[in-house]
Description:
two-stranded antiparallel ribbon, 11 helices, 8 strands, globular
Amino acid sequence: MDIQNLLFSLFCFFFISLFLGHQQVVEGSRVSPFAFRPKKLFVFGDSYADTGNNRKDLASSWKFPYGITFPGKPAGRFSDGRVLTDYIAGYLGIKTPIPYRWRKELAGRLKYGLNFAYGGTGVFDTTVAEPNMTTQIDFLEQLLNDSVYTKRGLKTSVALVSLAGNDYSTYIARNGSAAGFPAFIGSVVNQLTVNLKRIHDLGVRKIAVSALQPLGCLPQSTARFSFEQCNGTENTLVDLHNQLLLQAVNNLNKETNSTSFFVLDIYNAFWNVFNQKEEHQVSTPTFENPFEPCCVGVSAGFSCGSVDEHGEKKYTLCSNPKSKFFWDTVHPTQEGWQAVYSTPALQNSLKQLW
Length: 354
Ligand SMILES: *[C@@H]1O[C@H](CO)[C@@H](O)[C@H](O)[C@H]1NC(C)=O
Ligand SMILES: *[C@@H]1O[C@H](CO)[C@@H](O)[C@H](O)[C@H]1NC(C)=O
Ligand SMILES: *[C@@H]1O[C@H](CO)[C@@H](O)[C@H](O)[C@H]1NC(C)=O
Ligand SMILES: *[C@@H]1O[C@H](CO)[C@@H](O)[C@H](O)[C@H]1NC(C)=O
Ligand SMILES: *[C@@H]1O[C@H](CO)[C@@H](O)[C@H](O)[C@H]1NC(C)=O
C-alpha cells in the first residue's frame, strides 16, 4: 500500500468514525432523520405489560412479595420490579404511562400516554373478569371521543401491544387438550390483527406487537422436567403463532402503505437470554438456571404470594431475585426483563420504531 492509499484509508476511517459517532449521538437523543419524537406510549394487553390496572382484591400482583425490588412494595406489577412497559418507556425517553385506573387521580401524567393492559387478559375473554383487548381499545376510543386525547396528538404516539398467551391457557383449560389448536391460533392472530388495525385507525403512529415468548420454557411447563428442559410441543405451537403474526404485520403495513406496525421479537429475546453463557457476557445479566423461578407455591393450589387461612405463607422465595430470570411460574423478574430488553433480538426490533 503506498502512502496515498494509506492516507486515503485513514481519511475514510476517520470519516466513518465521525459518521458513526454522529449516528450514536443522534440515536442517543432519539432524533430520527424523520424527526419522529414519541411523546406518548399507549399500552394494551396482559400481565407482561400491566403496571397496576388489576383489582387489588383479586390479583397476586398486589400481594407481597410482588414489587419488593421496585417500587419496594406490591404495586400491581406481575414481577418483583419493573416490567416490559417500563423498559419500552425508558427507550422512548418518557415516563412510564400510568395505569388507566388512575387516570383521574394522576391526570397530570396523561401526557405520557396510558396503560390499558390488564393481567390475565387476551384478545378473547379469558378466565379473569378483566377487559379483553377489544374493550381496552374502546377505552382509548372513549378518551378520544371525550377529547382527553386528540387524533393529532396520537400522531406522536407509540402503542405497545402485549399478548403473552392467556387465550391459549384458557383454551387448554376449557378444552382439556391441545386438539384443534392450530385453527385456534389462526383465530387469535386474526383477532389480534383486527385490534392492531383499530389502534392504527385511531391515529397511533407506531404499533409494536410482541411475538409470543417460548411458552414451553415457562416454569409452569419446565417444572415437570425439574426446570431443566422446555416443552417442545408448546414451543412448536408458539412458532406457528409467531409466523402468522409476522405475516399479518407485513400485510398490515402493505394495506396501510406504511411502516406503522412491527413485531417486538420477545421470542428470540428470551432465547438470547436462555442461551447466554456466563463467560461470554459482561454487559447483560446471566442466570444460573434461567428456567427456575424465584417465587413458587409450596404445592399445587398455592402460588407466589399465597397465604393460608391463618396468614401462614405458602410459597418459597429465593434469596436474591437478581439471580433469577423468572419471578413466578410465568413472569420474568425485573432483572429478567432488563436482560430481555438488552438482547440483540429486542434492540434490533426496536430500531423499527425509527
Ligand atoms: C370483549 O369483551 C366485550 C365486553 O365483555 C365483549 O362484548 C366482546 O365480545 C369481547 N370481544 C372478544 C373479541 O372476545
Ligand atoms: C366514539 O364516537 C364514535 C363516533 O361518534 C362512535 O361510533 C363510537 O362508538 C364512540 N366510541 C366509544 C367507545 O364510545
Ligand atoms: C375444543 O376443540 C375442538 C376440536 O377442534 C373444537 O371444535 C372446540 O371448539 C374446542 N372447544 C372450545 C371450548 O374451545
Ligand atoms: C407439553 O405440552 C402439551 C400442551 O400443553 C401437553 O399436552 C403435554 O403433556 C406436555 N408434555 C409434557 C411432557 O409435559
Ligand atoms: C405509498 O407511500 C409512498 C410514500 O409515501 C407513496 O410514494 C406512494 O404513492 C404510496 N402508494 C400508495 C398506493 O398509496
